[in-house]
């Protein structure tokens, strides 16, 4: 535990030093501009006429966060310079070694989260009329889907691979998949798993990653 605490502490120091070295300026429009010490990398985070935030750099990377997405995922960011700066630093760190990458983060008219890039990735995530999550994701040409049926069963598909989580008597949960795995969880054990991963869907996906992870994209 002490080693982990020390490790996190050192990461914090290194990231703080990294942030201090960044030549970030704010122009008269409130947009952020970055130029590396060597001058070979430049990036901006600008607000367009629709109040979207658009990250771009001199390596043809462009990441667009539409206003509705920002209000949902980063409330207050359009007027909070510290929050905007933190996001900008993360985007610089994630994209400075990439070229020509483009992505858009939005929420459509049905309040569905949509993330799409120019490398074939697309995620659509929302809830049905009963409040159950519906997720459709495409990675490397393979579609993966997560949904909950009317009887409360969670179902996951990725190509020909399948997994499900059924609720049985006494609130017991049974996980099974197309690889022949089958696990039973008592109500107490399942609740501990949900508490660890925050939602039933995320707890279910942790099992999918563990038992189907070697064959899903």
Summarize this structure briefly.
This protein has five helices and 14 strands. It has 217 residues and is α+β, with helices and mostly antiparallel strands.
Task: Characterise the protein shown here.
This protein is an alpha+beta fold. It is built from 5 helices and 14 strands. It has a 14-stranded mixed β-sheet with strand order 1-2-3-4-5-6-7-8-9-10-11-12-13-14. Strand 11 and strand 12 (161-167) form a beta hairpin. The two termini are 33 Å apart.
Q: Classify the beta-strand content into a percent band.
A: 25-35%
What are the secondary-structure elements, in order, as H or E?
HEEEEEHHEEEEEEEEEHH
Question: From the alpha-carbon coordinates, what is the Rg to the nearest angstrom?
Answer: 21 Å
Task: Report low-confidence residues grouped into runs of 5 or more.
Answer: 1-21
Rough shape? elongated
Amount of helix: 25-40%
Computed structural class = alpha+beta
Features:
217 residues; alpha+beta; 14-stranded mixed beta sheet; 14 strands; disordered N terminus
Strand and helix map with partners:
Elements: H1 2-21, E1 23-26, E2 32-35, E3 42-47, E4 53-57, E5 62-65, H2 67-73, H3 81-95, E6 102-107, E7 113-117, E8 122-127, E9 133-139, E10 142-148, E11 154-158, E12 161-167, E13 173-177, E14 182-185, H4 187-197, H5 200-212
Parallel strand pairs: 5-6
Antiparallel strand pairs: 1-2, 2-3, 3-4, 4-5, 6-7, 7-8, 8-9, 9-10, 10-11, 11-12, 12-13, 13-14
């Amino acid at each position: 535990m002490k080693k982990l605490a020390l490790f996190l502490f050192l990461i914090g120091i290194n990231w703080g030093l990294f942030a201090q070295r960044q030549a970030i300026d704010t122009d008269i429009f409130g947009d952020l501009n970055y130029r590396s010490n060597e001058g070979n990398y430049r990036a901006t985070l600008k607000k367009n006429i629709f109040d979207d935030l658009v990250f771009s750099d001199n390596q043809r990377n462009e990441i667009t966060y539409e206003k509705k997405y920002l209000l949902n995922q980063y409330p207050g960011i359009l007027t909070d310079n510290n929050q905007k700066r933190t996001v900008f630093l993360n985007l610089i760190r994630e994209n400075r070694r990439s070229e020509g990458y483009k992505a858009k983060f939005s929420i459509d008219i049905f309040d569905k989260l949509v993330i799409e890039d120019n490398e074939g990735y697309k995620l659509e995530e929302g809830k049905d009329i009963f409040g159950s999550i519906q997720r459709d994701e495409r990675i490397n040409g393979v579609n993966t889907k997560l949904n909950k049926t009317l009887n409360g069963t969670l179902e996951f598909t990725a190509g020909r691979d399948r997994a499900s989580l059924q609720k049985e008597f006494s609130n017991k949960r049974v996980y099974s998949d197309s690889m022949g795995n089958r696990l039973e969880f008592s109500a107490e054990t399942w609740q501990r798993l949900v508490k660890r991963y925050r939602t039933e869907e995320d707890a279910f996906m942790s099992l999918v990653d563990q038992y189907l992870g070697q064959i899903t994209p």
